[in-house]
Design brief:
171 residues, mainly alpha
């Protein structure tokens, strides 16, 4: 789990969400992606900051992130009204906010972490268009979910993460 990778995933998801909202809802709703991102990132960071020490595990957080992206994917096939898309687009940002807060907390240098954060966001901006053309917004969401699920299985606390990923895949 790196600040670069999390920042990349956050900004890429925000761009993808604007495309999803523009496709399924009137174009006036697309700024909702930015509002949802800010609310979710702030709420996730707050939840991480107020969690008791040792209570938050990055692997479980990544598994929850993968599960929340799969939930968004499933919701797009079941029901795609304003309230449903708003509700299912928020949990990934909450998970990303908690994971970014965790990554910043263990970073050896705040300057280095901020540099990696900006670089990850810039890389996402540079690659978003080509990824959206190649994979479509839904394909990018599934790729992000697969990457988060795979990363959750590689880190410490894998047993809890495997259970969360298996439950998400079964849903």
């Amino acid at each position: 789990m790196t600040v670069f990778g999390l920042a990349f995933a956050t900004l890429l998801y925000e761009v993808v969400l604007t495309r999803v909202l523009a496709y399924f809802l009137p174009f006036q709703v697309t700024p909702l992606a930015l509002s949802t991102a800010m609310l979710g990132l702030g709420l996730g960071a707050w939840l991480r900051a107020t969690a008791p020490e040792g209570r938050f595990n990055a692997s479980t957080g990544l598994a929850g992130l993968a599960a929340s992206w799969l939930l968004l994917f499933a919701a797009l096939y079941v029901r795609w009204d304003f309230w449903t898309l708003t509700a299912v687009s928020l949990p990934p940002f909450i998970a990303l906010g908690a994971l970014l807060a965790q990554a910043y907390g263990v970073a050896p240098s705040a300057h280095g972490a901020y540099l990696r954060d900006l670089a990850g966001g810039a890389a996402a901006c540079l690659t978003a268009t080509s990824l959206l053309v190649r994979f479509s917004p839904i394909g990018v969401v599934l790729t992000l979910a697969a990457a988060a699920g795979t990363a959750s299985l590689a880190g410490p606390g894998r047993r809890a993460a495997r259970g969360a990923v298996a439950a998400a895949a079964a849903a």
